[in-house]
Amino acid sequence: MTDPTVRKIIHIDMDAFFASVEQRDDPSLRGKPVAVGSAAARGVVAAASYEARAFGVRSALPSVTALRRCPELIFVPPRFEVYRAVSTQIHAIFADYTDLIQPLSLDEAYLDVTEDRRGLQTAWATAKEIRARILEETGLTASAGISYNKFLAKLASDHRKPNGQFAVTPEMGAAWVEQLPVAKFHGVGPVTAAKMKRLGIETGGDLKAQSIAFLAQHFGSSAEWYFGIARGIDDRPVNPSRERKSSGSETTFDRDLSDPAEIEAGVLAMADDVAAWCSARQQFGRTVTVKAKFADFRQVTRSRTQPQGVRDPSDLRATAIELVRTLYPLEQGVRLVGVTVSNFEPTTSDMPLFSDGKSPG
């Protein structure tokens, strides 16, 4: 990637961000399984340390389930003001290397470093220096993916986690994508991955073998996107001024749920994600939407529009629960729930807390 005509994109992703901040600030938690969230009966895991992830503990998991998987799990309450302060430090580091920064959440962002502002010669060296500065200034580790487009950079950042980096060059991009499971692709969620599997598409190579007509028949308007990424193609720019029209978070459960308490725990976790984003950005929406997908992949939504933006997190939680309860009694299990806030009032901030559909940490 020394060719000056090739874009140089870095995707920085902090390692288990919320949990790592807690372990940094409380040395007694280091090396132990930690969950950010509440251990209450209806509590939910907001984020998990790598030690906890080894037991299958992850974001949006009901706390009772997390404790069954890891009886030694230590719960700590979230401190969003601290996470945001650390994120501000990290983004200040990014700004020393480029003006083209697209935040996806508090803990990840795309950087276009095609212009070598600090004279480091390569995007690899730039990513390495950024990660070193993050560690020095915050005491936290980050992973990085380096490539010639956003799709590949994001895939690459997962390849050497935690505390590593990986580059996908133009020479290797298309072949590298072919051997990856499509379930790992950004933009291919669990439902789409399951549909692709039923069609015999399990790897990037399988996806590449399909014609645009076949993809259009089965995936509609997403066909061109899937056709491109199967070949390592993604022309999207790093956009630092991306306007957000909504904020949402969703989670797919490990199994289909029929117990209202478990379903509502997931809804509350997603509502808390969105409430934290809204509070951090001081951007409040009038419309609350709850989404549910059932075992047969049928999707339903329920929405309510208020006279004013929903500012109190407890009001958002209450509205989300009222909306999901309109689905009862259930005819079949629920595999996914999501909460979205839209119809925003004017905002004065531009830093997202969570990207749409992403669980924290």
Automatic annotation (TrEMBL):
Free-text cofactor note: Binds 2 magnesium ions per subunit.
Function, in words: Poorly processive, error-prone DNA polymerase involved in untargeted mutagenesis. Copies undamaged DNA at stalled replication forks, which arise in vivo from mismatched or misaligned primer ends. These misaligned primers can be extended by PolIV. Exhibits no 3'-5' exonuclease (proofreading) activity. May be involved in translesional synthesis, in conjunction with the beta clamp from PolIII.
Enzyme Commission number(s): 2.7.7.7
Key words, A-Z: Cytoplasm, DNA damage, DNA repair, DNA replication, DNA-binding, DNA-directed DNA polymerase, Magnesium, Metal-binding, Mutator protein, Nucleotidyltransferase, Transferase
Top-level taxon of the source organism: Bacteria
Protein name (database record): DNA polymerase IV
The reaction(s) this protein catalyses: DNA(n) + a 2'-deoxyribonucleoside 5'-triphosphate = DNA(n+1) + diphosphate
Organism for this UniProt entry: Sphingomonas plantiphila
Binding site for Mg(2+): 13, 107
Main location: cytoplasm
InterPro entries for the chain: DNA/RNA_pol_sf, DNA_pol_Y-fam_lit_finger_sf, DNA_pol_Y-fam_little_finger, DNA_polymerase-Y, DNApol_IV, PolY_HhH_motif, Rev_trsase/Diguanyl_cyclase, UmuC
